[in-house]
Design a protein that fits this description.
alpha+beta, 16 helices, 518 residues, Beta-Lactamase, 5-stranded antiparallel beta sheet, single chain
Length: 518
């Protein structure tokens, strides 16, 4: 034990001299290697030589710089694990330096940046580790101020890296972490527990990481469910690599939502009966749905080849699913007009095709300069419209074949339909008038061509009253003396039909009787 105390005293006695001797070495080598290796071994000991005495697997003594070194690496007192962590940050195979053995040969190791040397002096029962700078320059007076400035800068950089919200760490070529920041250490604690954070070397959070390539990797957290994603990138630093990992959970969540939204849109588009074709700003087909292939009979392999708008229209012309133009050049010009009209949101056209097919083609502007075209099969609608129009024509023909004049009014008193006899009787063509003809307008025409009678006022009330719907009749006398028998009938839906039967000219005695009765 006396030998140990003498040795310790000798070591402490020489530490002051060695600290001044090594300070300039650290200063000069820091300035030289800061650019090449920003994470070179740096114990913040101002160039002091580190000395540790190990016996029976424990540190039994250390000089003051050595004790400070241990505390800066998380040690509580003479902590062998803290020494191991610190040595791993600078030396390869650092565990060999702290191993005890019976061999008496010394073990020397040079740090990865070449600035420091570690010497393990071994006896039969103890090991003394000495770490010092390899430089032999003399400390100049002005270097003390530079060293102080470098220490202040180093402290700022350390706090910046330690408080960074993203993971930063450095690995040797074999993948061993030799330096990490606080965020990395917290991630190790979340993934492996508190105990694993005090064991060195620390585990790799991303064992499948490929150096040199930016990657997105997931790690699992202990006793927690859910995903934890990081975007990892790396750069070479000497023989090692410096890695940076950013939290990518928000990005992954947004991409997942976007993917789900796109899947929903895709399923919706796939179920639409309307053909959809979206052309990007370069006018290449960017998106289409299955209904487009069914309506246009264009092969899917052609559509997936991203054809241009002109190529799609040419293919439609070949498949005869586009109206055949009389003049091909004029048709070509109309293609350009179609594109410009669709980009303004004004294009809408009906294509009547062979076989009774009718398509409505609509062009709409799309964000980013794209154009969306909608192809709707309106053949059934057009067929129904034609049938309805045909029935109306037949109905009108039947009305025109009637000898009696008739007019049909809606529940709101708007004239809907008349026949030829009505137009001859009252000398009016409602179809030629601008705007709608109401029951008030029509009754004014009837009043002007007949003698005064209360019939027209009663008719107006009857046509606009939804309650009193009983059929009734009344005669009126025209200005030329002819008698018109009027019948007013309610029809389904609240409308009113009026039938005017014009008597013959020989009915003059009857007209006189009506006048006398009035």
């Amino acid at each position: 034990m006396q030998y140990v105390n003498l040795l310790t005293a000798a070591l402490y006695g020489t530490s002051a001299f060695l600290s001044a001797y090594a300070a300039l070495a650290i200063l000069s080598r820091r300035r030289k290697n800061r650019r090449d290796n920003p994470t070179a071994f740096n114990s913040d000991l101002s160039g002091d030589t580190l000395i540790f005495l190990i016996r029976d697997g424990a540190i039994i003594d250390a000089n003051f710089p050595g004790q400070r070194f241990l505390s800066q690496h998380g040690g509580q007192g003479l902590d062998l694990d803290a020494l191991t962590r610190g040595l791993h940050a600078a030396f390869d195979n650092a565990s060999e330096l702290v191993q005890s053995g019976t061999a008496k040969e010394d073990l020397r190791r040079t740090s990865r940046d070449g600035m420091f040397q570690a010497i393990a002096e071994r006896t039969t029962d103890a090991t003394r580790i000495k770490i010092q700078s390899r430089s032999h320059s003399t400390l100049q007076a002005e270097d003390i101020h530079r060293l102080s400035a470098l220490d202040a800068e180093l402290e700022t950089l350390r706090e910046t890296v330690e408080l960074s919200p993203y993971l930063v760490w450095r690995e040797t070529p074999d993948g061993t972490p030799v330096w990490v920041n606080r965020a990395y250490l917290n991630a190790v604690r979340d993934a492996f527990g508190d105990q694993r954070t005090i064991e060195w070397p620390l585990p790799r959070l991303f064992p499948d990481l490929v150096a040199g390539a930016a990657q997105r990797i997931e790690i699992l957290q202990k006793n927690q469910s859910g995903q934890n994603w990081f975007d990892v990138s790396s750069i070479p630093v000497g023989r090692d690599r410096l890695f940076t990992a950013y939290d990518a959970n928000a990005t992954v969540a947004a991409e997942t939502q976007l993917h789900e939204f796109m899947q929903t849109l895709t399923k919706t588009f796939a179920q639409l009966t309307t053909g959809l074709a979206i052309f990007d700003k370069s006018r290449s087909l960017a998106l289409f749905n299955p209904a487009l292939t069914e309506l246009t009979r264009l092969p899917p392999d052609f559509l997936t080849s991203r054809p241009s708008l002109i190529e799609v229209l040419d293919k439609l012309r070949e498949a005869r699913t586009i109206p055949e133009p009389r003049d091909y050049r004029a048709w070509r010009k109309s293609i350009a007009d179609l594109e410009s009209a669709a980009s303004d949101g004004n294009y809408c056209e009906t294509w009547s095709l062979a076989g009774g097919l009718t398509y409505r083609v609509t062009g709409r502007p799309h964000p980013g300069g794209a154009i969306a075209f909608l192809f709707e099969d309106i053949s059934a609608e057009m067929t129904l419209t034609r049938q309805f129009r045909h029935e109306l024509e037949i109905s009108q023909t039947l009305l025109d074949n009637m000898e009696d004049a008739t007019a049909l009014f809606s529940p709101t008193g708007i004239l809907l339909q008349t026949n030829a006899a009505y137009r001859r009787l009252w000398n009016v063509d409602p179809d030629s008038l601008i705007g709608e003809t109401s029951i008030v307008d029509a009754s004014r025409i009837w009043h002007d061509q007949s003698l005064p009678t209360p019939v027209w006022g009663d008719l107006r009330e009857f046509a606009l009253d939804p309650n009193d719907r009983a059929e009734w009749a009344a005669p009126v006398i025209l200005c030329d003396g002819r008698v018109v028998d009027c019948r007013f009938l309610p029809v389904a839906g609240g409308g009113t039909q009026m039938i005017f039967h014009l008597g013959r000219a020989s009915d003059a005695p009857r007209a006189e009787q009506l006048l006398e009765a009035g």
